[in-house]
Design brief:
alpha+beta, 9 helices, flat, four-stranded antiparallel beta sheet
Amino acid sequence: MTGALWLAWRQQRLQIVIGAVLLLAVTAWVVHMRSEMMTLIDAYGFVPCKGWNGDCGNLGTYLILDGSTGSIRALGLLGFALPALIGVFWGAPLLGREIESGTAKLALTQGIGARSWFAARFGLAALCTVAASTVIAALVAWWWAPVSNTLYGLYWHDVAIYNATGPASVACALLGLTTGTAAGLLVRRVLPAMAVTAVALGTVFVFTTYFRRGWVEPETRVTPGTTPKELIGSAWSKGYGYLTPDGREHSIADFCQTSGTPLKKCMAEHGFVARYHKVYPSSDFWVFQWIETVLYLGAVAALIALILFVLRRPAGNTVAARPTDSGTTAATAATAGV
């Protein structure tokens, strides 16, 4: 290991070692907790009653879910927060600290080009980010699998599961790192860059959560008259209501929020002939995941292109000045794009 890569390792080894130790600790905890859960499953005769409106009727199942759901959710929320943690505490200082302290200028006068300097530092951090997020996603999926989509448990569309498993979680972690790196380069101060990164990633999370159900058409289940609706099972509900003979949909929020005889009377009064229920089946998990993976990786590519564009500027074109103790100003970056 020589040159820019050796320098990148020297400067990031503390984060890498701490991250590896924490990851090993989390892995040991998950292995222990899942082992205990499986012991209880064998002892109680676990009944995998799938779906929130299914019939479970097994006390052992409730006890197992009650004892494991909270811990699985905690791990899932760690996976959900991982992109922001990486972006704020690793990405933002990755270039920002070197620029702010002026050490970037020293590094770039040692025969290392700006792009090589960036590629080595970012490449090593990206490799660690992908590895860590993949391990966390695998641990969440492995622990959750025996009790997945079970009554009163966690479902595939819950934040703690969806955002912590699948390829989108890995791509999102990489986006977190890239966002922080770009913010550090552009803002040139670590603390402001950390704040910008947090706001930017928060905006991304809100955007994907709000628009996610608009990317795929839901499955529409229709039941004639007052026939009992099909059990939703592990599907994700988008809404339900009533249909008129011409096929027009009317939300239940506006009509007939009743059941039994009052429901029949209300439907007859408004001319409703059937009920509909729009759902996303559990198989749509992968559709949503791959859509978001493409979006995240597209954003990563755009940010890397921006970083490379900034770094290609001729030396001396980007000079950041800061006040010194005597009130004068000192150039902190007069290198290629730094």
